[in-house]
Amino acid sequence: MSTVDQPPPAPHAPTGEEFIEMQASPEFQELRRTLRKFVFPLTAFFLIWYAVYVLLGAFAHDFMATQVWGNINLGLILGLLQFVSTFVITGMYVRFANRNLDPKAEAIRNEMEGGPSL
Q1: pLDDT at 16
Q2: For residues 76 and 70, is the Cβ–Cβ distance under 8 A?
């Protein structure tokens, strides 16, 4: 008689009631709190930074036209920094999510599917 490896059992498909219960659980609330503590301040920072750039471009022409090096002016540098800050914030979020959000979300998913808890 040969032994054949059995595939792992399919994960439990949670019901709507189970999702609602999990949403009210302390683990899920902690996950939401962790996400909000990171996302809200960074979003506010970026929106303020972007608004300052737009307002400077609209009302501080002489300041934005200040030559820094050759034909490079402050407006161009600040505009490029908008792109840089977007990439930096994205990298910060990915790192934060990998360290702080993903392990908690994985534990919640495993609990919902009846798998091993972390």
Answers
A1: 84
A2: no
